[in-house]
Amino acid sequence: MSRVAGLVMRAADFIPRLPHMLFDPRGRIDRKGLLLLAVALLALQAVFAVALATGMMDIHGAPALIIKTTFLWIAIVAASKRLHDLGRSAWWIAIAFVSMIVWGIVAVLAVYPVFGRDMLVPGSAGYVAALALNMVPILAATLWMHFARGETVENRFGPAPDVTGFSMFARRASQSRAAGDMSQAITA
């Protein structure tokens, strides 16, 4: 089989799985899959930013909210799947969110005595210090998600990711039997 035919066959297998990969938080994603998805999301966001900045697109209100919400959901799905690959529940996202809010309050309270109200002025040294302190946990979590090794065997969230970097969620035995019973009933 030629190289082109092999790529076409892989694309034919990959494309039907794309909605699951992007929108379903079940399953797993390894480091390679997360990196590919992050690069694709950043590239797509850059295209939208350039289109908006050059006036090629004029999106405001509900359409802009839908686009931003879609990007946010895909990022949450990716984080969820990556946590699953690390053997952790996606509830860690909620824990991280609350922790970031608490950290942000602590960071602002730590910077305020040094810089005073100056920290509220964008571009000031206090503002930059508060922003930098607030970014520390986000940067740490991002590095951990990208560099931590996932589990190499099937875990409670599904099989190990395949060469695409993604895996489908694992069905429980009872769900598989129910699906099989329904397909037999439909074909009978």
Structural class: mainly alpha
The percent range for helix content is 55-70%
Low-confidence stretches: 173-188
Radius of gyration: 22 Å
Strands in their spatial order, largest beta sheet: 1-2
Strand percentage: under 5%
Number of strands: 2
Task: Describe it.
Helices cover 68% and strands 2% of the residues. The protein has 7 helices and 2 strands. The model is unreliable at 173-188 (pLDDT under 50). Among the domains are: 22-85; 90-154, no CATH class. The protein is mainly α. The longest helix has 25 residues, at 91-115. It has helices spanning 3-14, 18-23, 31-53, 62-85, 91-115, 125-147, 173-187; strands at residues 28-29, 166-167. A two-stranded antiparallel ribbon has the order 1-2.
Explain briefly what this protein structure is.
The chain has 188 residues and is mainly α. 68% of the residues lie in helices and 2% in strands.
Secondary structure elements and pairings:
Blueprint: H1 3-14, H2 18-23, E1 28-29, H3 31-53, H4 62-85, H5 91-115, H6 125-147, E2 166-167, H7 173-187
Antiparallel strand pairs: 1-2
Which features would summarize this protein structure in a list?
single chain; 188 residues; mainly alpha; two-stranded antiparallel sheet; 68% helix; globular; disordered C terminus
